[in-house]
Amino acid sequence: MGDLRNVLTVLTGMIPQADTFVSESDSINVLKCGEHVASVWFDYDQNSFDWYLGVIDGDSYQDEDIIISYMKRGDKNGYRWLFPETAEILPTKKKMIIKRNITVSYSLTAMIRCIIDNETLKEINESFKKFDFNSLY
């Protein structure tokens, strides 16, 4: 979270709000504002499921949904991710989150980019392979 907090502070000149948590009784444990997560979504362009990297928006929890700001995939494997010009902010069911507490590194060029380490990438892909897509229906 420190990486994202630093990037947002530099870009906006504002310090993001303190961590916000979901209820202690929630099954996914405690989620923090700024935490990076991988979630499963259906890609209508590819007509298949895939996973996407996002950042928890700690200010917005809607019942069973968690509000997540999603990045755009920067490569085929999911190693590089980009923040789009216009944020794609979506309510996400907890059961769609397949990996939490993802450590990323940020670089700033014309766009903000982040990179997932290879070990974490392998873990996410393994979780994606094991994911019960029928549970989403």
Number of helices: 2
Return residue spans where pLDDT drops below 50 for at least 5 consecutive residues: 1-27
Straight-line distance between termini = 32 Å
Shape: globular
Describe the fold and architecture:
With 137 residues, the chain is α+β, with helices and mostly antiparallel strands. The protein is built from two helices and nine strands; from the N terminus they run αβββββββββα. A hairpin with a 4-residue loop joins strand 1 (36-43) and strand 2 (48-62). The longest helix is centred in the C-terminal third of the chain and has 13 residues, at 118-130. Residues 1-27 have low confidence and may be disordered.
Features:
137 residues; alpha+beta; five-stranded antiparallel β-sheet; four-stranded antiparallel β-sheet; 2 helices; globular; disordered N terminus
What's the gist of this structure?
Helices cover 18% and strands 39% of the residues.
SSE layout:
Elements lengths: L1 H11 L23 E8 L4 E15 L2 E6 L1 E2 L6 E3 L5 E6 L3 E3 L4 E5 L3 E5 L1 H13 L7
Antiparallel strand pairs: 1-2, 1-7, 2-3, 3-6, 4-5, 5-9, 8-9
